[in-house]
Design a protein that fits this description.
Aspartate Aminotransferase, domain 1, 13 strands, 13% strand
């Protein structure tokens, strides 16, 4: 599915030098590379200002009296942390959400957003997704809303930005926060309307990302970051990641211990220079898959929506007519790896079934999302994917469907 070693070999000289610098200094916790990477990632996420504010105006919890360092206009603050799940939990903590408050989240995604909510006593309200792009349906938000709704958490799934303009307009009209999960789409860009040119994760009130090794920007272990354009909110988030303290041993709020270690920051700072190159490699591989497979009756290739770029963190087919598992077995017999992301919706996860609220009027409204769980199949997708390997993969898929 991935070739992390091949990517490392291409960048070996730079990565080894960055690691050696950290080892020589022995500043393994909060070394200068952490701040440098955060600054460079913030600069990368920076976009020209849109015609309207990109974030909803809310009353956020009051931060400590000490002001955070000023940031240039429209450049987001990036606060590194230990992993993407921590990023989500810290984001919800920073907004002052209370036990019983509701957060709307797509039902078709990884468990992390809903898990973070449940651990804080929040109620995940699951909504259906588009069968075309796998992302949250903006039109589902009104059906899911209640007086307890305090936030919506769109997930930019498989590398494609969710349709943020209607989500942001809805959030503004309802006075709720927007917390983006950009773990699979860091670098994706919105390309229409008032948010044209802005990058996923820097559109809502807070963005959360993971640097898990297979992500569009991945380290050699665990890592994550929280993104916000609100200086006061950034200050509060920073405190939460450090046990709620700004001054050592003086704890302003309840927090946690969630840090990106210096070695991982140094590696990420090198790889950040190649994020656009790596995105182009994935997009080229995705285009080959689509060209070779789009004529096959019985599968649906991923769709590039007109409102955003697609980074193809995963290249995910829909295999129709109940043939997904048979195709997966056929490919496995030829030594071709595939994955099912995701076989179960959030509300059917045993750990969550008793805490989620269904955000649709009746059980029939969830049909598209539940159907996806039985159809999706992700093919190998990474920056080192060669034409020869893709030819083998597509040939085997065509043979399964008996298409020449």
């Amino acid at each position: 599915m991935v070739n992390l070693h091949g990517q490392y070999l291409r960048l070996k000289a730079e990565i080894d030098a960055a690691i050696a610098e950290v080892l020589a200094s022995s500043a393994f916790i909060n070394g200068p590379q952490v701040a440098r990477f955060a600054q460079n990632l913030a600069a990368y996420l920076h976009s020209a200002p849109a015609s309207h504010s990109a974030s909803v105006s809310h009353s956020v919890p009051a931060p400590a009296s000490h002001s955070a360092p000023a940031s240039p206009p429209h450049i987001p603050h990036v606060i590194p942390c230990a992993n993407g799940t921590d990023a989500l939990q810290i984001a919800f903590m920073s907004l002052g959400l209370q036990s019983g408050d509701e957060v709307i989240v797509p039902a078709f995604t990884y468990v992390s957003p809903a898990e973070a909510m449940a651990l804080l006593g929040l109620t995940p309200v699951v909504v259906d997704v588009s069968p075309q792009n796998f992302n949250l349906l903006p039109e589902a938000l009104d059906r899911a809303y209640s007086p307890k709704t305090k936030a919506v958490a769109p997930v930019h799934l498989f590398g494609q930005c969710a349709d943020m303009e209607p989500v942001m307009e809805w959030a503004k009209s309802r006075g709720v926060f927007v917390v983006e999960d950009v773990a699979q789409a860091l670098g994706a860009r919105y390309i229409k309307g008032q948010y044209q040119g802005q990058k996923a994760g820097a559109i809502g009130d807070i963005g959360c990302t993971s640097f898990f090794p297979t992500k569009t920007l991945g380290c050699f272990g665990d890592g994550g970051a929280i993104i916000t354009k609100d200086a006061a909110l950034a200050e509060r988030i920073q405190m939460i990641t450090q046990h709620g303290q700004q001054t050592k041993y003086l704890h302003q709020v309840l927090g946690c211990n969630s840090r990106l270690d210096t070695l991982q920051a140094a590696i990420l700072d090198v790889k950040l220079n190649y994020i656009e190159e790596h995105a182009a490699a994935r997009q080229k591989a995705a285009q080959y898959y689509t060209n070779e497979l789009q004529d096959i009756t019985g599968i649906i290739c991923p769709v590039q929506e007109p409102y955003a770029t697609h980074l193809y963190h995963q290249y995910t087919l829909r295999v129709l007519n109940g043939r997904r598992d048979a195709l997966q077995r056929h490919l496995a017999a030829s030594g071709i790896a595939t994955k099912v992301f995701y076989p179960f919706p959030l509300h059917k996860q045993p750990a969550l079934s008793s805490v989620v609220r269904l955000g649709w009027m009746d059980s029939g409204s969830a049909g598209a999302m539940e159907q996806l769980c039985s159809e999706v199949l992700s093919l190998p997708m990474h920056t080192e994917l060669t034409l020869e390997v893709q030819q083998i993969i597509t040939r085997q898929i065509r043979s399964f469907f008996q298409v020449n």
